[in-house]
Amino acid sequence: MGDGPEIIRSRRNPLAQRARAVREGREKGSVFVEGVRLCEEAARASLDFEAVLHTPALARDERGARLLADLRGRAARLFAADEAVLDFVADTKTAQGVVAVARRPRTGPEVVERRGATPLVVVMHRVNNPSNAGAMLRVAEAAGATAAVSTAGSTDLFSPKALRGAMGSAFRLPLWTGAPLAEVLEWCAARGVRAVAAAASAARAHTELDWAGPRAVLMGPEAGGLSETEAAAAGERVRIPMRAPVESLNVAVALGVILYEAARQRNFF
Residue 152 in contact with residue 265, Cβ under 8 Å? Predict the structure, then answer.
């Protein structure tokens, strides 16, 4: 089905209602993708689009028209809707002209199992701010991480805010979500991937560690970081040196500092 002469004008329209349900996390098998840039990234990553709603104005914009031409061949349903409907469906304060519902990308231990590359795995333990989680995925991809894992109790990496923070990285980086921490550490140990925890109490700075071999870096929740038990379970710990009186960094910033040291040692750039 393609664009018809009718424009969706009612919030009660079943497609608008379903898009809203996906956006609110009431349909776990699908993801809500909003905005031209994010829809472009999702299309490049070959996501399975189920439905697309767009404003008539988007079709008159050059970039928007290119996107719609691409999505028309990918989405089972693609319809125009007036701005009031898009405002109702959208997660942002100002609707960005297009929203899509796509099948949730596959995640799991089999997805993050990569051969031919020295593992550099990011483990996000109970990170609960979606914007931070998205930024962590973005910096992980930028710095050359091979995969990312979010543990049980973490925010949904495919929530609208997390997807905006990741700016497409969530569609490209191999992911394992909802994993028990103990299972993740066992997975690493079985593959010779040495886990290291970011902990303020660590004796060694992150620059003193050998990052050239298979590594997993464990980052804790924003509020208090990893517990002593969780950090000890990783086997090794590192800290990021800071000048007083600063005691901590934003978790995404801290991850970036650590990963770029790993990238430097691996001659990624």
Answer: no
